[in-house]
Amino acid sequence: MRQVFRQLPWIHPQIDPRIQQFFNQYGRYLRLKQGASIFNGGDAGEIALVLCGLGVFSFPDKHLKNHYLSLIPPGSLMGDVDGLTHESVNVYDSAFRDSEVRLIKRDIFRDFLIQNPELLHAHTLSVIAHHESCMEALIANSTLTLPDRLQVLYASLAASFGKSTEKKSFVSIPLTLTAVELSAFVNASRQSVSSVHTEIESNGDIVRKKGETQLSKKFIDGCFDWLENGAQPSVRIRKRREKPSAS
Fold it and tell me: Which InterPro entries has this protein been placed in (predicted)?
């Protein structure tokens, strides 16, 4: 499912446990209803640790159509970049489903990181991983067909949230996605997504129930992943450099 980096597409990575501890100790508890956002960037910038539920990192295009760049699961941060840089940008960190968070003002979090260089380094790596995940999603949307994009999205969700089911050939994720939501992830129209999704369901690879989606292992294991297919870019580069020149 990954083509370039090591992060799963569309999924925020978790942050360092020591940073989670800071939010749990000093953050203000808040319940976010589905669709509610924190303040992104600017003087009122906030950062939030997701405790339970699910957040989403998104932006509206010029037609005000919303696009989802990545999901923010428990243990990950909302507003981890612009909440710290003070920049106001065209993104939203919102509750994808009803969620509970620990909220901290940007100045407090920034001072904490400045006083703890080791954790500043850990947070920097987390931000890089976050953007690698978003880039993997953008790469998928620009290089894969719609059926493949849906397959990669579900494979990524299964790798992050999947649990075993009574059927050994299936895994379950505690989430059902509408055609509108899926279209915002995979950059396609609702009608196209609905048509392709119906075909996948008719093949028995996706079974949607109340509050969960069951995915056949055959379906999600069919994705190409450069890390699982013997790809070694450094070896190829070295071989090209060491190739003897023609005499």
Answer: cNMP-bd_dom_sf, RmlC-like_jellyroll
